Amino acid sequence: MSLIISLLTQGGPPPPPPVPTTPGIQNWLILGLIIILYGVGYFFIRMIDSGRTFEIRRIPALDAVDQAIGRATEMGRSVLFIPGPFTRPGTPLSVSVAGVFQHVTEETARLDTDFFVPFDTSEVILASWLADIAQASYTAAGIPEKFDKNTNFNFMGQAHSWAVATLGWIADNKPAAMIHMCQGAAWTRNRFPEEAARYGALTIGGFMRGIEFLVFYDYFMVSEELLAAGAYITKDKALVGALIAGDALKYMLLSFILILAIANASGAGLLNWMMGYLR
User: Model pTM?
Assistant: First the structure.
């Protein structure tokens, strides 16, 4: 009785000492997958460094870019290229966007077609980077004087004010082609193509996510297609290596799943054993 009273006054028995824990098999499995991922990527990048070449299929949307610029040239109207918002320099997405922009400026320089790029005020570094790309494209075409940073580029506010100013530019200038490739935001991915389509523009979009927005564009690149387009144009070693490594890992994963399915169907019970072991 005295023991019960003592426990009640002291707030119950003391808690048990903590039991030391060790990383489970799930953590080791995740670590192993990360090591394989980086190892395969490093392997293919080293192969590219050694001179090995890999063929990358041309994305159909790149043909649409050529078609859109040619159409703008025939109509005597400009090309609108929107690289934002939220495209941060130094990321694989920004390299892909810069690659597509390089292709666009090479074509506009070759056909002597005007283009315009509206920037968010927070995209100063991105604007400087793309300006160097455009200047190089026009210099290679022999007409460096045709590119004017103050005319072809413009900072048009931030966030929603930038979007409204861009919509106003579309209404005033009526471009014949609109190319919008970036991380994207819901309030820009549908309004820009709708406004451009009102004036007969051919619209091309490219985003890392948001496949539901493809209904607003005439042509669309999503996720890996955008990365593949950048790798196809720029031939960047890291981008090409990551792209090839991703495809190789997909084949490895599919092969592993196929082996498990065959083993389980044959009565070996390998899949059930693995699921029980992982628990």
Answer: 0.70
